[in-house]
Amino acid sequence: MNLLQFDTDQSWIQNVAAMWRDRLRVNPRLVMCLPSGNTPNAIYAEMGRSVASGLVSFREAEVFALDDFGGLALDDPGRCRNMLQRFLLDAVDLSRERFHFINTEAHDLDRVCRDYNELIEARGGFDLTLLGIGLNGHLGLNEPGSAIDCTTRRVDMHESTIKASAGYVTHSNLPTWGVGVGLKHLLGSREVWLLANGTKKADIILSAVTGPISNELPASLLRRHPNSSLMMDAAAGSRLTATVQKAHS
Length: 249
Fold this sequence. Notes:
By secondary structure, the protein is α/β, with parallel strands linked by helices. 33% of the residues lie in helices and 17% in strands.
């Protein structure tokens, strides 16, 4: 895993966006798996500005939503599909048919999951996957203990993940389950970027980078990926930096 730490949150945003523009310029047909949530939103805004300025285009690319919550109204602003639409897709030139999302309200969820897996595989997997890291080390809805070969499936969320969802919804009906892309396709992506900012992520970043590699801490599995990068600001990397400095003192 490549470790990229930036001095400020703004530098983190600008550098991740610059690398993302480069990937799209090299491969305009980039197939991406993208998360929702608070971590990527400032980067998404920068990519929207980049498209508006003519610096890059999503026109030939494809986007797969990483996951979505169940039990929320279709128009709930906290649904992952709606967050992606609001913070990224409304600001870029990706056509509607090139955005793939998970319908958690479908009667036959098993069929939805099979179809999503088949569509991912029909594209040859993901070229680029962006991920946040949960406070328990989860990747998307791949909670601790998820099987390394799991694919898109229904998941009961851990308590910490349920609590974190309060930051996305405007009511007390927090989601307790969802459907998400599994570790098989995330770890099979040709390139993976793990994004982290803020001091609240410092402890889990330290564990993911220096602790045992195990599916009990899914983010640690990226250390075995041949082309993964942890992109963090100074706050998220503060405990890791302190540990490295202590080891060399």
